[in-house]
Amino acid sequence: KEIDYDGSKDTTYTGKGGIKLNLFNRLLFALRNQDFNMLVSGYVSSDSKLLINRNIITRAQKAVPFLTVDQDPYMLLTSDGRLKWILDAYTTSDYYPYSQDASEYGSFNYIRNSVKIVIDAYDGSVSYYIIDKNDPIVEMYNKAYPGLFSKDPLPADIASHLRYPELLFKIQSEMLRRYHLDPNVAENPQKFYDNQDKWDIPQLQAGGQDSQTQNMDPYYNMVKMPGGVSDKEELVLMRPFTPSNKNNMTSWLSVRSNTLSNYGQLVLFSFSNNTNIYGPNQVQSKINQIEQISSDMTLWGQRGSSAYMGNLLVIPVEDTVLYVEPVYVRAEGASSIPEVKEIVVGYQDGEEFRYGIGTNLNDAISKMFPASIPAQPNPNTSQTQTQTQTPQTQTTQPDTSKQGDQKLYNDIRSKYDEMKKQLDELGKLIDQMKQ
User: Fold this and answer.
1) Cα separation of 229 and 7, whole Å?
2) Which end of the chain, N or C, is surrounded by fewer C-beta atoms within 10 Å?
3) Is 269:255 a contact under the CB 8 Å cutoff?
4) Each residue of 249-287: pLDDT tens digit?
5) Do residues 198 and 188 touch, judged by C-beta distance below 8 A?
6) Nearest-CA neighbor of 318 among 419, 227, 219, 422?
7) What three-state secondary structure class fits 405?
8) How does 286-304 read in b/e, with b if 16+ C-beta sit within 10 Å?
9) What angle, 0 to 180 degrees and rounded to 10, lies between the N-to-C axes of helices 280-288 and 291-300?
10) Which DSSP state fits 212?
11) HSE (CB half, 13 Å, CA atoms) of 7?
């Protein structure tokens, strides 16, 4: 029996999973584990069950050693109130002709996310669902091991909350750095072989200004895809690109997870060559130059604490890009938990970077659109030019820039309100689980 933390009641496991501990099984496991308490303890009876392979990744891999199981599971709550772990499984091969190896990710040149694994968090029962009927390798396994994969489709309450795996998206975005040119355009084959239009993954410092740089990781986001791709917000995984050896942003790639009908659909948004869109490195540099951020981090980084910047997020909102970055403070000690002290939000307005700083996202967004908007001037813009532009906002003529700001503010507020609504719904589900 397991006693609740407050001692008010105890619970007993009644799940289907586990090995019944009759006398013979108890003797075998006592010898195997060199622990004879199992034979003499009054808490173990013939109705007791032993649960082994409790690690869900190990448990999922046991039955499918020919598949590669992803190391990043996630949990969801089903419509009948059960907690289920969801894992991704891949078919891989290194024999696919005329394909490039995935280099640092493994010695394969073929990978498909063909299987979703669902594990009941209570009794450990495992179900394997094929979600890619066009994968010949998984279809071969399905014929070779009849009964292993479920004949039923993925349950609707699970299918509506799928999450595209980050590992596969990393591999795809790495490959796209070179293989993004349209071969039907006459000059592109030569550009391809000369590496004239190769892309890079933005490099950012991980954990502070003095830390080493690393590739910007993909990140999940609830966003309404621009360009008429979607008519409502949905979960996407995204990653920006910069031109090789340059810092401006040239495009960003996203993959959809909303439903099985568009699951895994890659969408690439490219910026015009005639526009200069700030890349993550440029935005990070501008944020570091903000006097308030610099002074606050110096202040918070004293007396046994450390202050550092979190992950920079690049979020498309209508026809512009919103940048969001938190500032963390962490006290010394192994048990200390980082605390969000400030959030910086900003966007590019012509050649300027307009920003807002607040204690939370709502506060930062509100401060980004005051009567006088703070701006980081472009270092290439002279002081005289800046001074001649400033009085224009004080005239009595209609200020189209502020009308644009108001529209952008409304778009960002709408996105924030939608995110807050979803968090509130998640909180209600958690409360129901506690009851």
Assistant:
1) 53
2) C
3) no
4) 999 999 998 777 789 999 999 988 788 899 999 999 999
5) no
6) 227
7) helix
8) bbeebeebeebbeebeeee
9) 70
10) P
11) 0
